[in-house]
Amino acid sequence: MNEQMSGAFWSVGECMLELRPQANDTLLHAAAGDSYNTAVYLKRLAPAMPVRYVSALGDDAMSGLIRDHIRAEHVDDSLIDIRAGGTPGLYAIATDGGGERRFTYWRAQSAARAMLSAAHLERLGAELAGCSVLLLTGITLAILDDERRAALLSLAARVRAAGGWVALDNNYRPALWDVPSARQWMNRAARVCTHALFSFDDEALLQGDRSPAEALARIAAIGVPEVVLKLGADGCLAGGAAAGAVHVPALAVRAVDTTAAGDSFNAGYLARRLRGASGVKAAEFGCAVAAAVVAHPGAIIPATALPSLSNTEP
After folding, report:
1. In which element (H, E) is residue 262 found?
2. Per the residue annotation, which of 34, 202, 257, 263 is the catalytic one?
3. Does 263 qualify as catalytic in the annotation?
4. Beta-bridge partner residues of 195
5. What is the CATH classification number for the domain harbouring 284?
6. Does any domain span residue 249?
7. Among 42, 40, 35, 37, which residue's Cα sits nearest to residue 5?
8. For the segment 115-165, what is each residue's pLDDT rounded down to a tens digit?
9. In a domain? residue 200
10. Domains of the chain: total
């Protein structure tokens, strides 16, 4: 890890209970969600770095199962706001022969939508000096109201002002919010972030970009210092503006389940960058992590299936 980045990694968002059908007509449960997936993979790749999850859960049995999963991954859950009478979001997942997934959600009542209350923000503010990297996503912003969105970006601005990193994954989901709101808040978030880890498909859908070059140029014009544009099976573009972007190819694997491909890429990329690697080298490792993840079912794969950060330079 970079000597100057000695604090904790905070990931902000919604962790849900994932239900996945099994061959014997049972359901396997796990904890999952874009920001949580990244937190888990970063902790596995860089176990010496403290990783803390920021969210809200209820005090019911399902929320308890999620906290059990979080703790089993050695992710700190002490910044999760526990809401009396609250319940978590749930989703069921199904995949086709090519590994593409379909989701059915039950999340309208999710306690995560009520995170960042005044009391929660006071607790976060008291510990914010220990945060060196803060991750937020388009899904995180989508589930919050405007007051909470503004509060989250204020926390992010404080992290950046103190010399920390603010990583943003666009993760645009049209079902969660309207286009004008999504554009407004994603553009505000982009102006705060230091590392944009964006999917081109999501940028094209939300912003209307017709090519990766057009997307890179627009994002660079916002003033984001470091940009990666994820291209799915085509890998990614790393290095910022279109003229200086380097294409990093994806690894050729048979995709079983593409869930968490982008989330795990984020973890691999940030883990390598925190060790001082260049953006291109970090992107190569991010692609390797994502390749391992899509070759297995579920958002969180066995730890033994991941590539090792310790075998990379530097």
Report:
1. helix 261-274
2. 263
3. yes
4. 167, 226
5. 3.40.1190.20
6. yes
7. 42
8. 999 999 999 999 999 999 999 999 999 999 999 999 999 999 999 999 999
9. yes
10. 1
